[in-house]
Amino acid sequence: MSVATERSWIGDGARRALALGATALLMGSFLAVLSHVTDVAGGTDRLVLFVAGSLLAATVLARFLPAAFAPILAAGLFTVGLWGYIQAVPNGELLLRSFDAVRADVIALLTGLSILRIAEAGVWAIGFAPAPTFLTWYLALRRHYVASAVSGGVALGFFVLTGDAGPTVALVGIVGAAGVVGFGELERHRGSVGQVETLVAVLAAMIVLAPLVSVVPGGAADPMVSSGGGGPETVEAGLLTGGDEVGIQGSISLSPKVRFTVESSSQEYWRVASYDRYTGQGWVRTGDDRPYNGSLAGPPGDTTQLTQNYTAETSLSIMPAAWKPSTVSGDPADNARVTSLAGLQPDGTLANGTSYTVTSQRPNWTADELRSAGEDYPDGIRSRYTQLPESTPERVANRTDRLTSNADNPYDTARTIERWLEGSKNYSLDVDRPDGSIADSYLFEMNAGYCTYYATTMATMLRTQDIPARFVTGYTPGQRVARDEWVVRGLDSHAWVEVYFPDTGWVRFDPTPAGPRSAVEGSNLENARAGNESNVDTNRSEDGEWTPTPEPTPAGGSADAEDSAANDSANPAGLQRAAEQDQADAANGSATPAGGGAAGGTTSVADSSPLPELPSPSREQVAFALVALVGLAAGAHRTGLAERLYRALWLRYWPSGSPTSTVEAAFERLEYLLADEHRPRRDGETPREYLAAIDADDRARRVGAIFERAHYGEAVSDADATEARALVAELRGERTPVLGRFRRSRERGPDSI
Asked: What residues form the membrane-spanning segments (predicted)?
């Protein structure tokens, strides 16, 4: 049998399928962003419906609608979607009339404002989706592949600018756009199999090589976020950069360096920022910042005035303040901004030595007052602060229902969740960041974590009970160096939860166990001092903690101040029932008993397992490996490497059978060797004629003679089969491995192979 040649063409259907598949990949990239937005902000079902309708309309209209009308129809879809969003936003029509406001919002989106920061992000995503989906698919069906790639690329590029399209999504979209153009042109010009394989290999190389190339130059590390020494990021790196988003990290470290000092008549948590929208992977603050105009509204109930004076001991990009700030004075106040959640932000950074003063109205409350506060929340509070991603597993609500079954008011519910988290999980900075919902993973599958895990989980559990809660970042009081002065370091950075109560406002709850956290922070500071690290002390902090004379507990402040025996017994039956249900939860997907941790003395899975558990590959890693394999396969086939590898194995593999079949296999392999060295045997050319035409040596002629006998029905013996096989193996051994040619033997003369 002669060597097979590559087919010149592939079917039109296959070529078009590749082009449309690349179009689907491009559309999938920006639809993935929209799907994430609607999962977080609500409206996933409607998004699927609108996208499906757009695809159906494009498929039908592509048969008869002229291409010139498609952009007009897409513009109409976009206008309708935008109008629907405007109607959903409070005072949306007034906003539309303000051209400056609209222009500012568009510029903000194009310079990094996440879609998730928009109040009605889900409505916006649903309104945006139909236009690019329709136009991209319609143009691809009409074989306008370049225009299709431009349409989809613009949609994806918009999300890259807003920061909602991560590197993986952006890379998928770029590869999809390149595939649309490449495969589309191959379809139009009836490209060959080899050209398709070349394009597949190039696209796969783009995916494989992209993560290995960095185009962002390195810069000086921010002293607020650098851990130093190339170690893991600090807590501050993920929490306290003053940004509009907070992601949940894996392992982190603590920085012992001093950040600022505070003069205050009482110790507080020095609050930096709060966040209202939970994404499942982190937190986002919705709404726009505004300039500070000289004063801020206080909480709804009774308050006590508290004055604090802050001095930056390093460059700061934040403005800490005890809750709830009402006035700010000092140089930073001139350009300070107020977030949508009433936090303070500087315009730029505060230089070392900069001071400012904050007057706060601290809410006064008692536990009994909060228990009787009721659930008559102001307009917008419940909807804004009980939001959860639609993908949040139902078992989170089920566990919380059991845990708080005896709590008949939001305060006792919050206290029960707070104490349960304190006692059921270990405190650790060395954790692996889970995939999927952070709160669900921490609740059911993790033994340990640090403040962001505790706070995220508590806020999520409260929201499943329709209790308004939000995620807050800032610093714990720090080291007290005088009656009214505290030194605050990077290791004091922290995250906690605020819960809303009618007639009181936001009240702090801290589910992170204070003892283990303080021990870790103290050890870190001692090690830094022993290592003579710089900037870990001020003149007044080297002498240790100043101990005040015991004073009565103030009426207001954190829920921790009300940690009485009555509070501790708020819901013991619920705690017990939750522990009794651990086994049932494990059967439904929970890997770790909920009662494990420091308080319960439960040993982690890793401690009880005789062998280390190998980490499972992520979906991204699996997809990356598959793409690499496809690219390697296409490249190997295109370059002939796959054929050579196959033939190398085929030449060494001899099927078992009769002497006749062995001789036939030997001659087939001989033909391949001779074709590679000389030329293939032509149609109608007998083996004897072929061997004579290429002037084969005596060994090849001997194999040919044995083959003629077997082929024309003469009996061949086992000895004949063994001889033919040995001669072919000898010829194969003289073949040059790389070039595929035979080595000329001087002993055999010019006629030898």
From this structure: 17-37, 43-61, 68-86, 106-131, 143-162, 168-186, 198-216
Which run of H or of E encompasses 284?
strand 282-284
Number of Cβ atoms within 10 Å of the Cβ of 564: 9
Residue 343 confidence class, pLDDT cut points 50, 70, 90: very high
pLDDT at 226 over 50: no
Q: What is the mean pLDDT of residues 498-502?
A: 97
At residue 448, the 3 state secondary structure works out as strand
88 alpha carbon, distance to own chain's centre: 29
The answer to whether 554 and 561 have CB atoms below 8 angstroms apart is: yes
Residue 186 Rama label (left phi>0; alpha psi -120 to 50; beta): alpha
What is the spatial distance between Cα 219 and Cα 222, in angstroms, rounded to a whole number? 9
Distance (Å, rounded) from C-alpha 364 to C-alpha 447?
Answer: 36
Distance CA 753, CA 742 (A): 6
Q: How far apart are CA 441 and CA 541, in angstroms?
A: 39
pLDDT at 649: 77
Confidence of residue 227 (pLDDT cuts 50, 70, 90): very low
CB-facing half-sphere around the CA of 7: CA atoms within 13 A? 8
pLDDT tens-digit series, residues 263-298: 999 999 999 999 999 999 999 999 888 999 988 998
Task: Determine contact, residues 473/239, Cβ cutoff 8 Å.
Answer: yes
Residue bearing tokens 């851990």: 227
Cα separation, 360 vs 324, whole angstroms = 5
Higher confidence at residue 33 or residue 238? 33
Helix (H, G, I), strand (E, B) or coil at 98: coil
Look at residue 414 and tell me whether its pLDDT is greater than 90.
yes
Strands of 417-501 (E only): list them: 426-427, 448-449, 469-475, 479-482, 485-489, 493-501
Is 155 strand, coil or helix?
A: helix
Sign of the Cα pseudo-torsion (717, 720, 722, 725, in order): negative
- Contact at 8 Å (CB) between 725 and 666? yes
pTM exceeding 0.90: no
Q: How far apart are CA 753 and CA 747, in angstroms?
A: 11
Tokens linked to 170: 């952006």
Distance CA 419, CA 535 (A): 36
- Identify the residue whose tokens are 């007057």: 359
Which one-letter DSSP state was computed for residue 229?
Answer: T
Residues with Cβ within 8 Å of 565's Cβ and at least 6 positions away in sequence, in order, are none
Locate tokens 């999938």: which residue? 28
For the chain, how big is the Rg over CA atoms in Å? 36
DSSP for 665-722? HHHHHHHHHHHHHT-PPPTT--HHHHHHHTT--HHHHHHHHHHHHHHTT----HHHHH
Whose structure tokens read 């802050």? Answer: 310
> What CA–CA distances, in Å, run from 658 to 169, 662, 663, 673, 718?
58, 6, 9, 23, 8
pLDDT in tens, 628-675: 555 555 555 545 566 667 777 777 777 778 888 888 888 888 888 888
Token pair 């001997």 is found at 702
